[in-house]
Amino acid sequence: MAEPQPTPHQSKHSAAHRRRRAKEVKTKLGNLSPALAAEVVNEVVAGQARKQVGGFTDFLREQSVVGIGIGIVFGVQIKAVVDAIMFGFINPITQLVLPGGKSLAKQTIKLHFDGKTAAIGWGAIVYSLLTFIIVAAIIYGTYKLLKLDRLKKKV
């Protein structure tokens, strides 16, 4: 939700309040020894830094950014493994079984219509579907194996 905009009177009041507060702090710091003033300033700066870092970590936690990033990395790696399985195992087997001696990804069917020919790459479609099914099965199996379905999300 958006915060309501301050009225011009409120803006002037809050600006005056900030100036007055800054003047107070400056006066108090001026009455301290330089070492003590530096210590106070350092504490304030460190507190603000902790507040900003805390806000950032809250954002990461609430939006599940880290989990999404980890999921993407794992997904890419699983896809690489599945591609290796498809290229090294499935394609050679399909070359033995399917006509033409071509791998599954290169299988086509030619359609002729009105003197024109179109080659439909049905093998590439099946290849992509198999890859998707294998990746989905690995992710589902990992999800169940690690019992991630039983974890409660913090509210």
Features of the shown structure:
2 domains, 4 helices, two-stranded antiparallel sheet, single chain
Description:
The structure is a single chain. The two termini are 19 Å apart. Helix 3 (65-97) packs across helix 4. The protein has four helices and two strands; from the N terminus they run αααββα. With 155 residues, the chain is mainly alpha-helical. The protein is elongated, with a radius of gyration of 32 Å. A two-stranded antiparallel ribbon has the order 1-2. It folds into two domains: 16-62; 73-150, no CATH class. The chain has helices spanning 8-31, 34-62, 65-97, 122-145; strands at 109-113, 116-120. The longest helix is centred in the middle third of the chain and has 33 residues, at 65-97.
Largest sheet entry: 2 strands, antiparallel
Number of domains: 2
Low-confidence stretches: none
Give the strand order, joined by hyphens, for the main sheet. 1-2
